[in-house]
Amino acid sequence: xxxxxxxxxxxxxxxxxxxxxxxxxxxxxxxxxxxxxxxxxxxxxxxxxxxxxxxxxxxxxxxxxxxxxxxxxxxxxxxxxxxxxxxxxxxxxxxxxxxxxxxxxxxxxxxxxxxxxxxxxxxxxxxxxxxxxxxxxxxxxxxxxxxx
Length: 148
Prior knowledge:
Blueprint: H1 3-14, E1 19-26, E2 29-39, E3 44-51, H2 60-75, E4 81-87, H3 91-99, E5 103-114, E6 117-127, H4 128-133
Parallel strand pairs: 3-4
Antiparallel strand pairs: 1-2, 2-3, 4-6, 5-6
């Protein structure tokens, strides 16, 4: 089994009712995944994404994540809020969430233990109202500043 096949099979095995997942491909290779956990009774969803390290900085995560956010808000009218969280040390993820139009909504001091060291967590979110106000195409790699 290739790394890509193993990566996909591990993720697909975890998908249950209310959890949606997509493999992100580049040149027919799995380079990451995008996920959405729906909590429609509470009108919200949790958004997650990851890209293999060698593909960082190429705009892959913002482009794929933006497509999922747009589709979720378009297709699920009961959805009012989509949120994501990240290890506070993960500057790249925080940058992606900002490009998606998400705003920092909170921080937890040390809910993560990584290599036996406590680490912080940031939570960012996007309200439907904000998405609708800014639902124009987001330009290159999700950045509204690159609009023509």
